[in-house]
């Protein structure tokens, strides 16, 4: 299984959810932790260090990509000339790739220094990811991770403006190469959509767009709790919510049942 978390925003993290997420990881022992961006609140060196220490403490492999909060906001020279310097000091590649027992996961950096929140994908990135998907083992679930989602609620016009540029060409190309799912953050709430049905891609299986809530930050939206997702080996998606009364992340809802796709 994968543990999918997003938007921990170190610098605004809460101690009790931090301890609870470590406990959940100890209990479930995921084969991979995926963090879909916004590791920090203000891209400060100390915040990246805290994020890295936390991920190292989980004791399992992890893959991280940057979010829009992971580049400087107010220091304009650093934002435009070395936007990812501190991220790369701690985590290396902006577009990592990792293969586990059941999954083949590819990170895509959708953050651009000249945009505040909107995502962007280039033609080069589209083709590079397509080649990686084609080379992936056929029996493994092929997953791409980006910070901004590829689809939002039809009632959320504000969020729709952040959907990455060239999203649809990327989706069509990658789905033709066997893409099974995309993992995102950014909106601080969990959801799952089948892009195969929504965009009429004509694929023989669902292509899931999986959103995670904010894992650790007090920057909650719409009174939603801190939450993370578990992606099971059959692509069933479960949401775990943090419950302060118990000091634990609790299995609260199945966001997607794999058998419902057949």
TrEMBL record:
Question: Protein name, please?
Answer: 3',5'-cyclic-nucleotide phosphodiesterase
Pfam families from the UniProt entry: Metallophos
Give start and end of each Calcineurin-like phosphoesterase domain: 2-189
Query: What does the record list as coiled-coil region(s)?
Result: none
| Record key words, sorted | Hydrolase, Iron, Metal-binding
Q: Which family does it belong to?
A: Belongs to the cyclic nucleotide phosphodiesterase class-III family.
Please give the Gene Ontology molecular function terms for this protein: hydrolase activity; metal ion binding
Instruction: Report if keyword Metal-binding is assigned.
Output: yes
Q: Which InterPro entries match?
A: Calcineurin-like_PHP, CNP_phosphodiesterase-III, Metallo-depent_PP-like
């Amino acid at each position: 299984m994968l543990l999918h978390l997003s938007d921990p925003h170190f610098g605004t993290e809460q101690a009790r959810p931090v301890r609870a997420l470590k406990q959940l990881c100890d209990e479930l022992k995921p084969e991979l932790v995926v963090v879909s961006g916004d590791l920090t609140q203000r891209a400060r060196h100390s915040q990246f260090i805290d994020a890295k220490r936390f991920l190292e403490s989980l004791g399992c492999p992890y893959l991280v990509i940057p979010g829009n909060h992971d580049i400087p906001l107010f220091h304009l020279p650093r934002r435009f000339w070395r936007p990812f310097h501190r991220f790369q000091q701690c985590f290396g590649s902006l577009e990592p790739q990792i293969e586990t027992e059941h999954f083949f996961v590819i990170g895509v950096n959708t953050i651009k220094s000249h945009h505040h929140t909107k995502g962007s994908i280039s033609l080069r990135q589209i083709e590079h990811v397509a080649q990686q998907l084609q080379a992936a083992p056929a029996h493994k679930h092929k997953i791409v991770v980006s910070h901004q989602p590829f689809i939002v609620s039809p009632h959320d016009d504000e969020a729709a403006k952040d959907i990455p540029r060239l999203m649809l060409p990327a989706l069509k190309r990658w789905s033709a190469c066997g893409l099974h799912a995309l993992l995102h953050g950014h909106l601080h709430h969990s959801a799952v959509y089948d892009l195969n049905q929504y965009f009429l891609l004509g694929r023989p299986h669902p292509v899931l767009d999986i959103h995670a809530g904010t894992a650790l930050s007090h920057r909650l939206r719409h009174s939603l709790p801190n939450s993370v997702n578990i992606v099971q080996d059959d692509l069933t998606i479960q949401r775990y919510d943090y419950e302060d009364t118990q000091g634990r992340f609790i299995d609260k809802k199945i966001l997607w049942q794999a058998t419902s796709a057949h």
